[in-house]
Write a structure and sequence with these properties.
28% of the residues lie in helices and 37% in strands. It has 154 residues and is of the alpha+beta class.
Length: 154
């Protein structure tokens, strides 16, 4: 049975493992493998610890995490060995339950699995935006901007 719980400092090594493995997949799907940086390299510059962070855990093993504010779902990563098992969807549902306002998210162009997961949860595509990659500004990126209408629509 999956348990969603708050992040603790003791979770840092596992969160880094999950991020780094899944980020490689995410960047590869967008043709941006050369842009990879570890979470340890980017967390401070991207204000990772300013977000509320929740973990998905099964039998004591952390399998994914989400980081969010009241109006933005900013980070969602699942252990690549556990893709397709509903972990990302469960984390999104947790955020939707904890936030009342409309929620935004962005998906790198080419990450069709993530896009489908967000849309399944009720996010709608607003459009695409191009710019520099946050945390690794040497790279240009295109993202699909998404929005969930919030609790009022649920």
């Amino acid at each position: 049975m999956m348990k969603i719980r708050p992040y603790t400092d003791a979770d840092w090594p596992r969160v880094c493992e999950i991020h780094d493995a899944a980020r490689r997949d995410e960047l590869a799907s967008a043709g941006l493998s050369a842009a990879f940086l570890t979470l340890a390299e980017t967390a401070e510059n991207e204000d990772f610890f300013d977000y509320a962070i929740r973990l998905a855990e099964v039998e004591g093993q952390v399998l994914g995490f989400v980081a969010f504010t009241p109006d933005e779902l900013a980070w969602l990563y699942v252990d690549p060995l556990r893709y397709g098992q509903g972990i990302g969807s469960a984390l999104i549902q947790t955020v939707l339950q904890e936030t009342a306002a409309p929620l935004t998210a962005e998906v790198l162009d080419g990450n069709l699995a993530a896009l489908a997961t967000y849309q399944k949860a009720g996010f709608v595509v607003l459009g695409q935006q191009s710019g520099r990659m946050p945390g690794n500004e040497r790279f240009a990126v295109t993202v699909t901007e998404l929005r969930h209408p919030g609790k009022a629509s649920m």
